[in-house]
What does this fold into?
Amino acid sequence: MLEARYFRDYKHNYMILPCRQQTGTSYQCRLLTSGRIEGILRCCLRHVNGESYFYYEISSRATLEGLYRGRKMSAQQIRDLLEQLYGIYCGLGDCFMEESRLVLLPEHIYYDMSHKKYVGLYYPDYETDKPYEALMDFLLEHLDSGDERLADGIYTIYERMEESSFSLRDALLLLGEEDGDVSESGTGKVVAFPSAPVGSEETKAVSAQILAFAPESGEESADVVFGEEKAPAPAKKKPLFYPALSLLSVLGIAGIAYIYGSYDLSEQEIMTLLGCGGLLVVCLLVGVIGTIRAGVQEIKPKRGMENVEPFPNEESFYPEEQTPVPLEEVLSRKMDIGPAAGMKNATQEAFPVREETEDYAATVFFDSTRTIEYKLYAIDKKNKKHITLDKFPYTVGKMAGCVDCALADDSVSRIHARFERAGDKVLLTDMNSTNGTYRNGLRMQPQETVEIEPGDEIRFGNLNYCFR
It folds into this structure.
C-alpha cells in the first residue's frame, strides 16, 4: 500500500505521494514531470515545508478497483487490460525508465474516461518483491467463473508469476487468442469492454470502449439494465388492413357504377372503368379472404391447449364410492354417548373432525434488515428523479451503461460517486468527480469515504438529494 493522500483545488483532483529522494532532480523525476511519457499519470513536483511531493492529476479517472467493484471481468476485458499495461511497460523501457517502478495495484491503475484507455502510475520510489501479486489476486477474484478457459489461464499465470523472468507479455501469451470481441452472459445479454485492435507501435496502449455492466443482483436477466426493467411488449393489435381494403373496394365499385349510369361515355372511357372495376373486385376478394383468415386465427385454440379437457361438472366431484350422506339420515341415527375404544359414532364418520394437537411449527426468525429501503429524494424543483439504492455497491454518474443510475446533468461526472454498505452503515465515496460530492454542504476530497445517515443532504455537482 502506498502512502497516498488526495487533494482538490478549483478544477483538478490530485493524488499526493511523498518524494523520498533528496533533490528530486534525478533523470527519472525530471522525465516523469516533463509529461513526455504516454500512458502514465501526469504529475508535478512540489515542495511544501521543506518536503517534496509528487502531485498526480487524477481528474475524470476511475480506478480499476472502483470500476469493477461488485462486477465480473470477461476474458476480453482482462486481455484488454493486460495489453494496455504491457504497452505502458514497453513505453517506459523505450524511455530508459525502470519498469519495476510501474505500480500494478488495482487501486492505483486508472481508467481515463475522456480518452477511454487505462493509465498507469509511475512512482520513482516504489519498491516491491512481487509486482504482479496484487493484480493477479484482483483478477482471480473478479474473473468470470463460467469461462473455464479464462480461469485456467489466470491460474497458470498466478503459478508462473513467481519466476524472475515473468512479464506481462508472458501473461498475454498464456491467455492466448479468443474469437470475438465481447463476452455474453447466460441470458444472451452482451456485457463487455471491447477494444480496438492493437496499433503498429508496440509502445502505445490499446484504446478501449466501455459498453455495459451487468447487474449483480442474483440471477441475471437480459431485460434488466442497472436496475431499470425493460418495458413489457405492447399487446398485439388486431389487423385492420384487410377490413379497410374491403371497405374501400366496395366504395370504389359503387363509384364506378354511378359514373357508368349517370354519364355518356366513349368506348375508351368505358374500357378504363371496366379495368378499374376489375382491379377493385380483386382487392375486394383479397380483403374478404384476409378478414376471414384473421377471424379464424383468433378463435383457434392456443398451441398446447387442444387436448385440455373442459372443467369437470359438479357430479365429477363426487365419485360413486363416496356418495354424500343426506343430512336427514345422519340426524335419524342413534347417537352413542359412550362409544367403545376404537369405535366412532355416526357423526364422526359423516363429519370427521381434526383432533387438536400440541405439535406447532417452530417460529421462523424474521430478518428485519431485509425490508430496509434506502432512497435519495430529489429536492430541486427541476430535478424530480429519485434514486433507490436497491443494491450495493451502487454507483451514480452520467455515463449510461457504466453506472447503476445515470443522471443527465452536465455538472455530474461520468462516474461520480459510489454507495456501499458495511453492516448497518451506508458509506459514500467520491470517485474523483470534477464538480465534487457534498455531504451536508461540505465538499468531500477525491476518493474520500464518509458515513451517511438518514436526513443527510447529498449533492452531486448541481443536483441535491436527501438521504432517507
